[in-house]
Amino acid sequence: MLSQVVSLAWQVYREEKRQNQQRFMRLIQVLLMTLIVTLSLVSNSIQGFLTDNLNNLLGADLVLQERRELNSDELQSLRAMSQQIVLTRSLSTTLTNNNQWQSVKLKTAAQGYPLQGELLLADDLKSKAYAHSGVPKQGEIWLDSRLLAGLSAQIGDRISIANKVLQVTRVLVHEPDRLMEGHNVQMRAMVNPMDFNVMGFAVDIIEHRYLVAADKSQIDAIINWQKSVIPAAGVHHKQGAHPLALFWKRTENFIGLASIILFFMAAIAMQQLTRVQMRKELFFTAVCQSFGANRAMSLGISMLKWSLQCLSIFPLVLLLSTLCHWLAINLLSETFPQLQWQLNIMLSFTSLIAVTAVFLVFQLPVWLALKQSAIMNLIHNKTKKLHQGTMWLCALLILSAVAIYYSDNMLLTFMVLGSMAVSIALILALSWLLLTSGEAVTRNFSGLMPFALYMMKQRLLSKCTQILGVGLCAFLLLFTLMLLRDFGSSLSSYQRQHDGNLLVSQASEAQMQDVLKWTQEQGIQVRQNKPYLHAKLIEINGLDLDEFTQTPSESLAVLKQSIRLHWTQSIPENNRIVAGQWWSADSTDWQQVSVEDEVLTDLGLNIGDRLRLVVADNAYDFTIVASHAFKPGAGSITFWVQMPQSAMAHIAAPQYHMASLELQEAQFEQLSALWQLHPSLRMVSLQELTERFDSILKMVTQVVATFASLILLLSAIVILATIHALEADERKKNGVIQSFGFARNTCLKLTLIEWIVTGSIAACGAILGTWLAGSLIYQSQFSMPWQPDISWLLLTLMAMVAFVVSLGLMASKRSLSSSVRELMLD
Fold this sequence. Notes:
Keywords: Cell membrane, Membrane, Transmembrane, Transmembrane helix. This protein is α+β, with helices and mostly antiparallel strands and 826 residues long. It is built from 25 helices and 22 strands.
């Protein structure tokens, strides 16, 4: 019996393999399997890279990071719990060379460096790297290759920093303690400790890192000691997670959530294809029963046939996912240097099995329908409405499972799924409204257009799904290629108008006085000047940050490092109150803060929650009394956390300033003198900010274009699947039309009108969605209307209509070949 089932399943599989329905089904499965397997492989590669990166670039078993140098008692306690300690000091500064400047991470180290790993140097850019112990000699400086190129410097050149002249003697190739703590690696330089000391940098802007050699028990003891004695310090160790691990996890989850739209499109296409498959399966089961087979045998044949179909596409999926994995690793190597591609067959098969289980759920309605098969189906081949409802229930189950698996933050999940739901609802509502109103208005008229609208109204669901796929694809492409580029240029002009073309991101009191003096001498306009303190959040409602939440959060990652704490008595002009109440001018309560609304929501905080902030080694408790948000029209400098001005009478800490200036083009060359006087002064030009935005936009465009291409391909499959599912009805319709004496050309005109209307509605929906999104973004960021490029919109309209009409006519070729003779034979 088993051999008969296997033999029959194999025979049926080979016959159905050539059918269009199975080709469409295989294409959908290949696309989604490739996407999920590739995402799993890329995620595994990056997590493995981060683990190796932590082990190889930590330079110690544990690193204790603090803004100040440990006092003698703290250092003695740390030595007692460790085997060896090496102190490194670094800060972000600016190096200048012949009116050229570059932002750089300047570092020095104590005796015993490197503690673990190898410090690699080279005599020049063309020489081979070699291992070295120690730091530069006094009067020397080592620069990495990018910094040498950025400053147009060479080995032997002399570079001035803080009025001290240093000679470039080596190329800095690799530091064993250069742990990635951001999305990009900063340019690096090393100097002698004696030179570092005489440069006169403020102690509070220097990052002190204690490289510690310790075993597991000592690491645990140091972590407990740090939490109780110096809670503001940061700790990284080889037993912990990489600082970027949560960032990548959030990225992976966002891509996973975004893939729901692909599963939604696949569900639509598979629902159309399953309708045809269900009729065939019921007919085949009834035939088997007429020859004496029972339902269990028929069900076994169907299951085995489906398994063969899945197994047949596994090699192709493995090949495509491996290729996509390789391409993704090459693309991400710019963000994660030294990230390498590695083949992982086991993970590929595991992911394949998981996605196969997803398609198994999609197949359940067909197998459930076989339970109701009977020989009478040979006469009345009908599927009950229950089976259609089961299909959508299974699709909903799959979408929910994907959302739950990739959800780590309710705000992110709500924003992603909410935006998708709104887009889908708008396109479906527009489709229903136009088709219904068009059919109602033309009901009493004769002609091809009224008849075409009437037929489209009768197939409203299938038409809406076709419009939905094409419309979503067009919306994503328009949003990325047009709106984001317009947004970038508008952002630059807005910053130029309100913030000038130079941003001072960090200046001490003394530095700011010299900056203001310099601006007066040069006749430079100061647009904004706001003070702040450096603070670090260590507790929320009495809980350590790791105890309070363990979900990935960009806000939490920043708060764990350091934030700018601003003080003001009144609400800033570029802020508005979202919730709570701002403190009054005569309030004596200084321990209250207002938190940026997005940060409040991202961390799940509420009005009344308590925050403990460490400022200059002292801990202060604050209560959240309000939340604020950015308001355009008065500059872009705003702060996440703000407190009353009266708090400054109780807090003793170094003060810093953020400011924005408007410089003439020739005045940029004079910044070198200012950086020579204050090398730790942090400034960035509008041009550099714009370049950063453009680089991010380029990456976003690549991702969204790839994503939109997948949606476009799936929408094409939806169109083809719908045409295939309704092909029999279409052939009958065309046969009936010809039976009334109309030529076959009339059927072609009706089909042409139908696809022109479908493409036009999809394109109009995408344009409307882009205009709505653009208007909301521009209103919230610039308080002005968005003026889109009409030529882009018209080009999109024509391209979408041409695509839909071409695809629809090619797919409808078979149904247009029907005749009256065929109708009579039916």
